[in-house]
UniProtKB/TrEMBL annotation:
SUPFAM superfamilies: HAD-like (SSF56784). It comes from Shewanella ulleungensis. NCBIfam families: HAD-SF-IA-v3, PRK10826.1. This is 2-deoxyglucose-6-phosphatase. It comes from the Bacteria. InterPro entries: HAD-like_sf (IPR036412), HAD-SF_hydro_IA (IPR006439), HAD_2 (IPR041492), HAD_sf (IPR023214), PGP-like_dom2 (IPR023198). The gene is yniC.
Amino acid sequence: MSTQIKAVIFDMDGILIDSEPAWQLAEQTVLNSFGLNLTLEEVEQTTGLRIDQVVSYWYQRFPWPHYDNTVAANKIVNEVIAQINTKGEPMLGVIDSLEACKRLGLKIGLATSSSSRIIKAVLDKLAIGHYFEALESAENLAYGKPHPEVYLNCASALGIAPSQCIAIEDSFNGLIAARAATMQTVAIPAPHTVNQAKWVIAHHKLAHAGLLPALLGNLGR
């Protein structure tokens, strides 16, 4: 493998597991119970943000009485975990991608805006925890994505320079974070957003994770 790429850092929701619909449904259900009337398109605007930032984002726009960010965020997280436990499935090509990283001698990390509770639920459900040498959450950081700190922390935990890492993302906020961390980037957008112009900021764009092994192999030549 080329000395230029020594580690692959995966986002989690929408990359390892098809959990974005679960997040969107949970956010709609909980936030609309406070009197908001958010559409799916509106909820998608906050994809990639930490859940407390999501709640704060919508409260700033449509304030509701008896606001408690922690309570609202926990309700959303509990609903997402319930859906992961009952319906969670790996995204297409994820296991092949993780195996390819091992085969190519690349370190593997996880950098997510989701909480440690969500990370545990996903890794347990998919039985993939053994692939990862570093698990980093933005849960307790001052800023979540699009701030680069969670990616920088993951690179540091892996012992690899950020410029020698490639980040795999499905959200625009995540790509901004990875780019700001000076990493190479791969966007794997949700199919209904694939033609949006914003993905031009990624170094590479793939239709699904099953195409990642070939890309990593080519980068190593």
